[in-house]
Amino acid sequence: MKGRKNPFTTEVTLGKPDESRYPIICRGLIDTGAARTSIDEGLAQTLNLEPTGWVRVRSANGVQRRKLVWLQIEVFNEDIDLVASITDRSDLACPVLIGRDILHSWIDVRNAYYEEEE
Fold first, then answer.
1. What are phi and psi of 7, to 5 degrees?
2. Cβ–Cβ < 8 Å for 76, 10
C-alpha cells in the first residue's frame, strides 16, 4: 500500500489556541471508538501546549492516566478549539487520533455498530 493514503485518515492542521504561528500539518486517524481526540506527546511539546488537567482513558493498552491540553485543530475545513489528551504515538503512522468529540458533527456515532464476518 506504499504511496496510497489510508481511507480512514484525513489532513489536519494543529496549533495552539489564540496563536496562528507555526501550525503543523499532518495526518489524523479517524476513530469512531475513541471518545476524545488525542495527539502525540512530541507534537504537544513542539506546539508548546500547556497541560490543563488529567483524564483516565481506557484503550487497547489498558487504563492510562493522560494529560489534557487545549488544542486548535483544523479538520474537515473547520477550525475547532478543544481539549485533547496526550499520549506517545511516535511508533504509529498518524500522530493524531480524531475522536467522537470532533466526529459527532459529521457522523452519527451513537448508533455505530460493527458486523462480524461469518
1. -70, -10
2. yes
What does DSSP assign to residue 102?
H
The single-letter DSSP state of residue 95 is S
List the domain boundaries for the chain.
Answer: 9-100
Residues 38-65: b if buried by 16+ CB within 10 A, e if exposed: bbbbebbeebebeeeeebebeeeeeeee
User: Residue 90: phi, psi to the nearest 5?
Assistant: -60, -25
- Third-level CATH fold of 9-100: Cathepsin D, subunit A; domain 1 (2.40.70)
Residue 87 · residue 41 · CB < 8 Å: yes
What are the distances in angstroms from CA 57 to CA 6, 62, 80? 25, 8, 22
pTM of the predicted model as reported, rounded to 2 decimal places: 0.81
Each residue of 61-112: pLDDT tens digit?
789 999 999 999 999 889 999 999 999 999 999 999 999 999 987 665 555 5
